[in-house]
Design a protein that fits this description.
There is one protein chain. This protein is an alpha/beta fold. 45% of the residues lie in helices and 15% in strands. The chain contains eleven helices and eleven strands. It has a six-stranded parallel β-sheet, sandwiched between helices. A five-stranded mixed β-sheet has the order 1-2-3-4-5, with helices on one face. Strand 10, helix 6 and strand 11 form a beta-alpha-beta unit. Helix 1 packs across helix 9 and helix 3 crosses helix 7.
Amino acid sequence: MMMKISFVPATLLLLSWFGCTTTFVESANILAVVPFNGRSHYIVIEALLKGLAAKGHQVTVFSSFPQKKPVKNLTDIDVSYLTPTVVNGFTLDFEIQDMLDKAKNGFIYFSFGSVFKSASMEKHMLDAFLKAFSKLPQLIIWKFEEEIDNIPPNLIIKKWWPQRDIFGHKNIKAFITHGGLSSILEGVNAGIPILGIPLFADQPGNINNLVRRGAGIQLNLEDITFDNVYNALTRLINDKSYMENAKMMSHQFKDRPMSALENAIFWVEYVLRHKGAYHMHSTAADLPLHQLLLLDVIAFLLISFFIFLYLIYIIFKVFYSHIIKRNKTKKVKFSKDKKKQ
């Protein structure tokens, strides 16, 4: 049987590149190169890869996180030796489960993701968090990369926590985050009120979307003091509207004709069925750079603006010359009249 070979690059979930070799969409050979050394980033696409394998596609994955148990139709190629792995472990074991179950006042989860290290924050910020946590009745679990001396009894730190499993626990009351897209989506999906402390890039916008919907509070880095942290967390937990709005957002987020995973699988297979789906190809990809960046439009507007300024200059110059000439004529006439007198 002859097979038509094609390579279709596509950006899917956090810059993961796919190549597909296929004749029939029922069974495609899919290559996934996932160049992330952070487990929290990899799991975003892991479910899609497993889902495609479960549909019968032959999936080959280059990543730093091979499956611990073999998955049918999925072949892992471990490349963790190429980049240092920044996280470890990802299961909610009995010890953690028991600890969260016993948190009678609930618990707050704190993580700045796998890129930014909480241990690198300035001392006055760390002191502000520790003091605020010590005054709260809730258990605090914090992803922190180093040991801390003299921590309050209601604070537990680890280098990594199983975030998705923690979000599914009934006793969670709030989530403190930097506002990364993956963390925000997981928090919204779980229906958890969020205290957002944005660091850079898209994070301020992500958190602002929650604030506008009444499901979160934002604190900037320069605003981190004991009073601000304590008051924000107290308000987030005690004001029931934040939890209600978070639950409403979660319901809205999940109310769709198919799950997010099913939707992702559908579009991968759609591209396969339609041989790259070039009918959906953006015309922007074919534009010359000067058109793509609207440099021609900008040049036209700038030229028009300078022409307008030049015309204004000419008008004022003519007007000024006319006034000067008129004044000179009046002066000459006045001088002649004076001499006659």
